[in-house]
Amino acid sequence: MKKYQVVGIGNAVVDVITRSDDAFLADMGIEKGIMQLIERERAEQLYGAMGNRVQTPGGSVANTIAGLGNLDARSAFIGRVADDDLGEFYASAMKNEGIAFVNDPVKGGELPSSRSMIFVSPDGERSMNTYLGISAELGPDDVSEDVAGEAEILFLEGYLFDKDKGKEAFLKAARACKAAGGKPGIAISDPFCVERHRADFLKLIEHDMDFVIGNEDEIRSLFQNDDLDADLRAVGAICPLVVCTRSGDGVSVLHEGTRIDVSVEKIVPVDATGAGDQFAAGFLYGLATGADMEKAARMGGVAAREVISHMGPRPETSLLDLFRQQGLI
């Protein structure tokens, strides 16, 4: 048995969440419903403008790993934080959730820990303004081949693909995982990231990934066939497992050429932050515990539903209890 069921690699970002209306977004020049990268000065301006802030450890794949911690899965996270207040908060919060936080906070670095200011509108839409700071500097030196080799499943965050050393870290980890008999996969994270790196992304998926998880926009961005069915087939031709979430329209899974579609019950989100991340947690838990594809997708749906029922990107109730109630375990 390997030490970890799932190891994630991604941005270690402190999420700072507040509620705001559309007028506030317009006043502050914040584009609604998207993730924007911002510089340090803008980060300080927005942070100062936030009232009733809720602070929580975040980052897309880190949220997924936290969901797996909630499920009592053996899990670890590889990420980069500074030796500052936010970095110490982040590392201790991950450890408190039962997750092995592999990398010590970096001492004496010039860049501070990363943070994302998230403004939640009354309709549940979230507008994210992310200052990447030190987490975007993650590179191969931060990746322990021993940890990657001890992972049954390795989950990579597409956002980190923006820098060459992030790509190098991915390849080092994926190859160590695969050489030891594990399954590496990727969260596409962002269609704009695909736009910037399409050829490299496709090469990584074809040669080094055993699975891909993304929403409809992300899956469509890979091959741009302007037809989801055709896009799914195209990705499925280069990768054995493709998982596409379609918000309230359910989930499509293409596994070794066989497609299943799983419906979900539509609800109005309190806060949509973390929906895709927790879907991935539920799905990967199913994958790690030998569930079939339909059951794994249903687990993902239950986890996503839990997280959109409250503020914040991580589960607040026991996902295992919810799975039992649904007859999934």
Task: Note down, in words, how this protein is organized.
With 329 residues, this protein is α/β, with parallel strands linked by helices. The strands form 2 sheets. Strands 6-5-1-9-10-11-12-13-14 form a 9-stranded mixed β-sheet, with helices on both faces. β13 and β14 form a beta hairpin. It is globular. The model has no long low-confidence stretch (mean pLDDT 92).
Q: Which structural traits does this protein have?
A:
329 residues, 12 helices, 14 strands
Element layout with pairings:
Elements: E1 4-9, E2 13-19, H1 22-28, E3 35-37, H2 40-49, E4 54-58, H3 60-70, E5 75-78, H4 85-96, E6 100-101, E7 114-120, E8 126-131, H5 145-149, E9 151-157, H6 164-179, E10 183-187, H7 191-208, E11 211-215, H8 216-223, H9 228-236, E12 241-245, E13 251-255, E14 258-262, H10 275-288, H11 293-307, H12 319-325
Parallel strand pairs: 1-5, 1-9, 2-7, 3-8, 5-6, 9-10, 10-11, 11-12
Antiparallel strand pairs: 2-4, 7-8, 12-13, 13-14
Helix pairs in contact: 3-10, 7-8, 8-9, 10-11
